[in-house]
Amino acid sequence: MLTPFGTRIRFWFGRLLAEGHLGAPVQRLLEPSVPGSAAVACTHQNRSPDPLNSAEKIHKVPGGYRPSPFDKKILLWTRRFKKEDEIPLRIPLEMMDAARNKARIKGCYIMIGLTIVACFAVITSAKRAAEHHETLTSWNLAKKAKWREEAAIAAESKAK
């Protein structure tokens, strides 16, 4: 298996050579599965994630993440658990991240739906206003005429 990013493959003396990100040396050679075919060099490393240093080992809480009340609501909304009583005191951080991502996606879908509904509501209200010949221009002209009348009344009352 080749590394997913930054892999270069070269043919070299009848063998397939794969180099890692920084031209890392070939980790192992796989024996050819078909007699007479070339051996394949593979950069797939059977290594575990980076080991934690001693400070991280000391401060890492076993069992993962302690969910807040809001996190519990997210876990229930994304249907990770059926009831709030079923949620353990500590859950894996990966589970919480997955639940947050799912909740974020659901929230986006809800916002998209509400936006579409709002667009249709604006369209229908604009059509209804057009039937009654109510436009923004007519509203502005009526409002300015009302202000002029109020200003004229105020000026007459000061003149007396």
Share of helix, binned = 40-55%
Q: Give the rounded overall mean pLDDT.
A: 76
Q: Which outline best applies?
A: elongated
What is the element string, with H for helices and E for strands? Answer: EEEEHHHH
Helix/strand/pairing class, anyone?
A: mainly alpha
- The total of beta strands comes to 4
User: How far is it from the N-terminal to the C-terminal residue, by CA?
Assistant: 97 Å
Low-pLDDT stretches are 15-31
- How do the strands line up in the largest sheet? 1-2
Strand content: 5-15%
Structural features, described:
With 160 residues, this protein is mainly alpha-helical. It contains 4 helices and 4 strands. Among the domains are: 8-42, no CATH class; 69-128. A two-stranded antiparallel sheet has the order 1-2. A hairpin with a 2-residue loop joins strand 1 and strand 2. Helix 2 crosses helix 3. It is elongated.
Write a brief caption for the model.
The chain has 160 residues and is mostly helical.
Give me the secondary-structure topology:
Elements: E1 8-12, E2 15-19, E3 28-30, E4 40-42, H1 54-59, H2 69-77, H3 93-131, H4 136-159
Antiparallel strand pairs: 1-2, 3-4
